[in-house]
UniProtKB/TrEMBL annotation:
Family: Belongs to the aldehyde dehydrogenase family.
First and last residue of the signal peptide: none
Keyword NAD: yes
Catalytic residues, chain numbering: 265
Description of how the protein assembles with itself and partners: Homotetramer.
InterPro entries membership: Ald_DH/histidinol_DH (IPR016161), Ald_DH_C (IPR016163), Ald_DH_CS_GLU (IPR029510), Ald_DH_N (IPR016162), Aldehyde_DH_dom (IPR015590), ALDH7A1-like (IPR044638)
Name recorded for this polypeptide: aldehyde dehydrogenase (NAD(+))
Domain Aldehyde dehydrogenase: 31-494
CDD domains, A to Z: ALDH_F7_AASADH
Pfam families xrefs: Aldedh
Amino acid sequence: AEKFGIKQALKDLGLSEINHGSSTGTNWFSNGEVIESYSPVDGALVGKVKATTKEDYEKVVSTAEAGFKEWRKWPAPQRGEVVRQFNEELRRLKEPLGKLVSYEMGKSYQEGLGEVQEMIDICDFAVGLSRQLHGLTMHSERPGHRMYEQYHPMGIVGIISAFNFPVAVWAWNTALAWVCGDACIWKGSEKTPVTSVACQNIAAKVFEKNKVPAGISCLITGDYKVGEMMTQDERVPLISATGSTRMGKKVAQTVAGRLGKSLLELGGNNAIIVTPDANIKNTVIGAVFGAVGTCGQRCTSTRRLIVHEDIYDKVKDAVVNAYKQIKIGNPLDENNHVGPLIDKDAVKNYQNALDKVVEEGGNILVEGGVLDGDGYESGCYVKPAIAEAKNDYEIVQHETFAPVLYLLKYSGDVEDALKLQNGVRQGLSSAIMTNNLREAERFLSVEGSDCGIANVNIGTSGAEIGGAFGGEKDTGGGRESGSDAWKVYMRRQTNTINYTTELPLAQGIKFDL
Ligand code: NAD
């Protein structure tokens, strides 16, 4: 790792030997057990972070509550100005932060930089948004009355995030929540705690310089038990949780039990439909990048390729050939396409999936396997695999967070392909490759894809921050990032003002005294 300047990156990001969660503008720290974070790249220790105790958590929430009472009074464009300065720091620290993301999580350095770029983009978006937190005005049914709506800050937003996007998901939430006037408490993944501290350090510096009240950016650290402190806490009106469907179902129940709001961004089982009218070259690029990028650990990774029988063999051969070109190795080395899985448990899940698909009758087209020897000492490097399968296999119905691509064949027309594509519990991302206008429109129509994201002639993986991001069914129904996703971070109030000397009642009701 030293060859790639990790030590310098940690220094540039202000990390120390043992790091703590904290709240901006305060100098108290988390006091729980030490979490050690090991890199899947080379198995070495990335850093140590102390976990948040119940007492620490109480301090965090009371600081955030007090901070919110001040912060909500700042004009939104002034809050936007703080986010603008935070963004400048992100631009300045893009390389060390991208490098740390790559080293602690295992995605390629290019993808690490891409993730920081997403943070930068959402901050730009949020700064503009800080002058556009608009409500509507409505015509009242009563004479001499005016009616309009306004959006007020919500309060404390609890953010729970997954290991695979250790920095972008936090920014998608915080950049918007901050301009909306909320305080944020973030519990990052216990698998990438050092990256979380690096982000908090960047925010803290900018916030302190701008005299933002303490508690507007808070970091708590630890596993699901620390997450549960927030999901159970009535003082946290909104929980934004990104991770597995299993986690989302628990979080949703706990938060609903206290009538809180939750924004859920959960697992996907994304497919590309390839019709006889598809451009095969682009299909192969989209499918292979979608399946092996981030070692198959994106929520939008391509897991199923649904190919028409007329072009099935052609697509199959082209994809299998493309897999021969894939270079697996240290993700900090830009010559490699695919880095490691996050840890050895993920490797086990990957191996189990390959065993299971064979057990269920699948046919392996590209063999998987765990790599060992020089450069692969961490035990987390695996070969991307392809299996011919059926949509109703149990393993195909399931999201395996690894580079395993299932090839499915359809005959008939695009409706038959749509039945397969929609025939899973998850509903995040979907795509169709076709130059046939009817097929494309059918795919996007009310009878088409049931996913939150539906693309034509691009793959399933990756999304721009300008659109609302999220999915349906087991993906949880939440939307974050662009479009009007900001509304979830605010509470809407409808105001009716009577400027007459009378008091007419709604619906023409007479109430004479
Ligand atoms: P995970 O569910 O194991 O953990 C996610 C986070 O939830 C972690 O911070 C964890 O500590 C916390 N957590 C787990 N159980 C909890 C509970 N009961 N209460 C409170 N917090 C709890 O997921 P992971 O392995 O880190 O990430 C992979 C998963 O995330 C995949 O399913 C992937 O599709 C999904 N994901 C979805 C999106 C999206 O936007 N839809 C984005 C990234 C990842």
